[in-house]
Amino acid sequence: MDIYQNIRDGKYVVKDVPYVPYGEDKEKHMAWRKEEGRLIDLFYADVKEELGITDNPKADKLMSKAWDKGHSGGLWDVYIEAQDMVDLIK
């Protein structure tokens, strides 16, 4: 698996549910948020698999820290943060 290629290919981008602002249509907005959450979970699972920490009990904590530090820069930055910290839990 290649996280960089998956990000470039848009694997973790909401495509099938149109974005609608919350104030315009709460139900459609929540459907979009649900799909966004599913794709973030998929990203997390792919990163954990690539880093070899799928069964590590601290993997979710690592991913949470990586998200906090990197998400403002995009998914690639989240991956880099996770990669930088992975030795702490192996």
Describe the structure.
The protein is mainly α and 90 residues long. It has one domain. It is built from four helices and no strands. The chain has helices spanning 3-8, 26-51, 59-70, 75-85. The model has no long low-confidence stretch (mean pLDDT 97).
Topology:
Layout lengths: L2 H6 L17 H26 L7 H12 L4 H11 L5
Helix pairs in contact: 3-4
Characteristics of this structure?
90 residues, mainly alpha, 4 helices, elongated
| Overall geometric form | elongated
What structural category arises from helix and sheet content?
A: mainly alpha
Helix-strand string:
HHHH
Give the C-alpha Rg: 14 Å
Count of individual beta strands: 0
Query: How much β-strand is present in the residues?
Result: under 5%
| Average residue-wise pLDDT | 97
Number of helical segments with 4 or more residues? 4
The parts where pLDDT drops under 50 for at least 5 residues are none
The quaternary organization reads as single chain
| Distance between the ends | 20 Å
Helix proportion of residues, in percent?
55-70%
> The biggest beta sheet, please?
none
Task: Quickly count the domains.
Answer: 1
Give the gist of this structure.
By secondary structure, the protein is an all-alpha fold. The chain is built from four helices and no strands.
